C-alpha cells in the first residue's frame, strides 16, 4: 500500500519495522528524526473490498492503480536480520531449517524472541496482566494480583468519590468482535485489546462501573448515516457483513461483524450527544471502535469505517444545537471530518496533528486548509512540523489558538475526537503527551459549552498509554483535575513557529487574533529556547529498565550505569533498527 502525497509515495508504517516499534525508553518518545510517521492507511476516493479467501463479490468495486511491491515488517526482519555479513569462507551453514520462535508484545505488538521475558521496546512482561487491571498492572511482573505499590496507585486514582453519576459512558462488548481475521506479519495495531485495556483500567479504579452510568447501545440507522456519508459508502460497509474477510485499503480491514460494530459505535456517539444536549447527562465518553475521523463522505480508510464524530455532531444539531465544536487531538489529521464539514459554518473543526509538510499520514491538514465556500475560517489546523511534540506545545496551542477561537465561536456542545496516539510511548505517533496533559486539555475544553462535552475515542495503540490517558480524561469529566497542572507553559521553538503560522492565517477570519499574534511575535525573540531545551533534556533523563540487568542488554546496562550515570535519551535512538536490537548510540 502506498499513499501519494505531493507526488511522492509514502509507504505504510506497518511495512516499516523500525517505525512501528518507535517508542521511548520507559514510555518516552522517539527522538530519531529519521523515524517518520506510519502511513497506516491509504487515502481512497472509492470503496475497495478484497476477499482474501475467494473471488471478490461483483458488488465490490476494484480501483485500478499503480502497483508497487510491499516490504512488510516480517520481510524486513527476515531480510538478513540474523545473518552475519562478514565473509567467513570456513563457515558452512547448517542445511536444516531452524525455526525462530517469537511472541508479540501484548502492549505494543512488537515481535520478541521466544526466550525473552520482557518486550525489548516497551519493557512489558511477556504475560502481563494489563488486560485484567489495565495500566495499574505491573509491566515487569506476571502476577495476577496487584502489588502493594500498585494498590496505592489505585487508591489515589479513586480519589474523592463525590460523583453524582453525571458522566455517561458508551460501550458495547459486540464492538470487540471487529478484528482482523488473519494476522499478517504481526498483530494489527487497531485491535480489540485497546478497549479491553481501557475497560480494565476504569474497573480497577472504580470509575466504571461505579461513578459513571452506561448509555443503552443501539445501531445507527441508515437515515442518520446519510447525514454524513454517501449511500454508496454505507452500502459498501454493510456489504462486509456477507464476507468473512475484506479490506477497504490494505490495512483497513473488516470481518462479518465489522459493519454492526461500526453502526453500534456511531449509534452510541449519536445518543451520547443527544443525552448531553438534553441535560440528562453532563458529559460523556464514547469508548468505541472502529474509530472514525478518517472516514470521509465516500470512503473508509485509516482503520475508520463510519465517522463517529460527524454523526454525533449531526445528532446534536438535530437535537437543537446551533453551533458544534469538534476538537481533534489525534496525532493524525482527521481528513474525513474536515471533508464532511469543510463547507459548513455551523461546525467549527480544530485539529492538532503531526503534518511535517504533508509527509505524515494522511498528508492533509496544512495550516492554510481553512474550509471552503461558507465554511472558510471554520476549519483550523495546527500542523506540527516534527515528532516528539509534548504537553508544553499542546497546552500552548490551546491557550493561544484553540480556546480563543472556540470561545469566540461559542458552541452549544463540544466534541473531542480523542485519539491517544500522540501519547508518550505510542509506537505510531512518536509524540510525548502525558495523561496529565490530556486531562488539562479536557479541563480547558470543559469550560466551553456550559460543560456539555462529549469525548469520542479515536486512535492510540500502546495499551498502557491509551488506558492511562483515557482514564485521566474521564477523571477530568467527573470533576477531578489533573494531578499535575502546567502553570507556566514555554513552547518549543518549532511549536511557537507553528502557532504563529496558524494565527497569521486565521486572523483573516477571526480578527481578534491579531493582538495575540503581535504579542507572540514580540515574545518570539525574547523567549529563551535554550533554557527550554535544557529543561527538556533534564526531564528526559531516565532510569534504565531493571530487567536489562539479566537480559540480552546487560552489557549496555552496565556500561551506561558506570560511575552511577543515567541515560540521556537525546543521545540514544530508541526506534528499533532492523537488526533486532533496541537502540543505537547517536554518533
Describe the fold and architecture.
The chain has 587 residues and is of the alpha/beta class. Helix content is 31%, strand content 12%. The protein is built from 17 helices and 18 strands. The chain has helices at residues 17-20, 73-78, 130-133, 148-158, 193-204, 222-225, 231-239, 258-278, 308-318, 335-341, 391-409, 435-446, 463-477, 493-506, 513-526, 529-539, 554-560; strands spanning 2-5, 8-11, 102-104, 111-113, 167-170, 213-214, 246-249, 252-254, 283-286, 324-328, 347-354, 379-384, 413-418, 453-457, 541-542, 567-568, 572-573, 584-585. 51% of the residues are buried.
Keywords:
587 residues, alpha/beta, globular
Layout of strands and helices, then pairs:
Layout: E1 2-5, E2 8-11, H1 17-20, H2 73-78, E3 102-104, E4 111-113, H3 130-133, H4 148-158, E5 167-170, H5 193-204, E6 213-214, H6 222-225, H7 231-239, E7 246-249, E8 252-254, H8 258-278, E9 283-286, H9 308-318, E10 324-328, H10 335-341, E11 347-354, E12 379-384, H11 391-409, E13 413-418, H12 435-446, E14 453-457, H13 463-477, H14 493-506, H15 513-526, H16 529-539, E15 541-542, H17 554-560, E16 567-568, E17 572-573, E18 584-585
Parallel strand pairs: 5-6, 5-9, 9-14, 10-11, 10-13, 11-12, 13-14
Antiparallel strand pairs: 1-2, 3-4, 7-8, 15-16, 17-18
Helix pairs in contact: 5-13, 8-9, 11-12, 11-14, 12-13, 14-15
Amino acid at each position: 500500500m502506498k499513499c501519494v502525497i505531493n507526488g511522492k509515495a509514502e509507504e505504510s508504517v506497518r511495512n516499516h519495522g523500525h517505525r512501528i516499534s518507535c517508542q521511548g525508553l520507559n514510555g518516552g518518545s522517539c527522538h530519531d528524526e529519521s523515524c517518520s510517521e506510519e502511513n497506516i492507511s491509504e487515502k481512497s476516493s472509492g470503496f475497495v473490498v478484497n476477499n482474501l479467501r475467494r473471488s471478490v463479490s461483483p458488488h465490490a468495486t476494484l480501483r485500478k492503480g499503480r502497483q508497487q511491491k510491499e516490504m512488510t515488517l516480517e520481510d524486513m526482519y527476515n531480510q538478513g536480520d540474523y545473518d552475519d555479513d562478514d565473509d567467513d569462507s570456513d563457515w558452512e551453514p547448517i542445511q536444516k531449517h531452524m525455526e525462530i520462535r517469537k511472541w508479540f508484545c501484548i502492549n505494543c505488538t512488537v515481535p520478541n524472541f521466544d526466550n525473552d521475558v520482557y518486550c525489548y521496546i516497551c519493557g512489558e512482561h511477556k504475560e502481563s496482566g494489563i488486560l485484567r487491571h489495565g495500566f495499574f498492572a505491573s509491566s515487569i511482573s506476571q502476577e495476577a494480583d496487584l502489588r502493594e505499590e500498585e494498590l496505592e496507585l489505585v487508591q489515589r486514582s479513586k480519589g474523592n468519590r463525590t460523583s453524582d453519576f453525571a458522566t455517561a459512558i458508551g460501550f458495547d462488548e459486540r464492538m470487540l468482535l471487529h478484528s482482523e481475521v488473519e494476522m499478517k506479519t504481526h498483530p494489527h495495531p487497531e485491535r480489540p485489546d485497546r478497549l479491553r485495556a481501557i475497560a480494565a483500567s476504569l474497573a480497577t479504579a472504580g470509575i466504571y462501573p461505579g461513578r459513571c452510568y452506561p448509555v443503552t447501545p443501539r445501531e445507527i440507522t441508515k437515515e442518520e448515516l446519510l447525514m454524513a456519508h454517501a449511500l454508496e459508502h454505507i452500502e459498501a460497509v454493510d456489504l462486509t457483513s456477507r464476507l468473512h474477510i475484506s479490506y477497504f485499503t490494505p490495512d483497513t480491514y473488516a470481518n462479518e461483524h465489522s459493519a454492526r460494530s461500526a453502526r453500534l459505535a456511531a449509534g452510541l456517539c449519536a445518543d451520547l450527544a443527544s443525552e448531553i444536549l438534553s441535560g440528562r447527562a453532563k458529559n460523556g465518553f464514547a469508548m468505541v471502535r472502529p474509530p472514525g475521523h478518517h472516514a470521509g463522505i465516500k470512503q473508509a480508510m485509516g482503520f475508520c469505517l463510519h465517522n463517529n464524530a460527524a454523526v454525533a455532531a449531526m445528532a446534536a444539531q438535530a437535537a437543537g444545537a446551533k453551533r458544534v465544536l469538534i476538537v481533534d487531538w489525534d496525532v493524525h489529521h482527521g481528513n474525513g471530518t474536515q471533508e464532511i464539514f469543510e463547507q459548513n459554518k455551523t461546525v467549527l473543526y480544530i485539529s492538532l496533528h503531526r503534518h511535517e509538510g504533508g509527509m505524515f499520514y494522511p498528508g492533509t491538514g496544512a495550516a492554510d486548509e481553512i474550509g471552503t465556500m461558507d465554511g472558510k475560517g471554520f476549519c483550523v489546523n495546527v500542523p506540527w512540523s516534527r515528532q516528539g511534540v509534548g504537553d508544553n506545545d499542546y497546552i500552548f496551542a490551546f491557550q493561544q489558538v484553540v480556546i480563543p477561537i472556540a470561545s469566540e465561536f461559542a458552541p452549544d456542545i463540544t466534541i473531542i475526537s480523542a485519539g491517544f496516539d500522540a501519547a508518550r510511548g505510542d509506537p505510531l505517533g512518536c509524540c510525548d503527551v502525558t495523561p496529565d496533559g490530556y486531562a488539562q486539555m479536557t479541563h480547558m475544553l470543559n469550560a466551553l459549552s456550559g460543560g456539555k462535552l462529549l469525548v469520542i475515542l479515536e486512535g492510540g495503540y500502546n495499551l498502557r498509554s491509551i488506558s492511562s490517558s483515557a482514564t485521566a480524561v474521564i477523571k477530568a469529566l467527573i470533576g477531578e483535575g489533573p494531578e499535575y497542572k502546567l502553570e507556566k507553559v514555554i513552547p518549543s521553538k518549532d511549536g511557537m513557529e507553528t502557532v504563529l503560522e496558524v494565527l497569521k492565517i486565521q486572523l483573516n477570519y477571526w480578527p481578534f487574533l491579531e493582538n495575540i499574534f503581535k504579542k507572540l511575535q514580540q515574545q518570539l525573540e525574547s523567549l529563551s529556547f535554550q533554557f527550554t531545551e535544557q529543561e527538556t533534556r533534564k526531564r528526559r533523563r531516565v532510569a534504565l529498565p531493571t530487567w536489562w540487568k539479566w537480559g540480552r542488554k546487560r552489557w549496555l546496562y552496565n556500561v551506561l550505569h558506570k560511575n552511577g550515570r543515567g541515560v540521556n535519551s537525546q543521545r540514544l535512538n530508541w526506534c528499533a533498527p532492523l537488526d533486532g536490537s533496541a537502540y543505537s548510540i547517536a554518533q
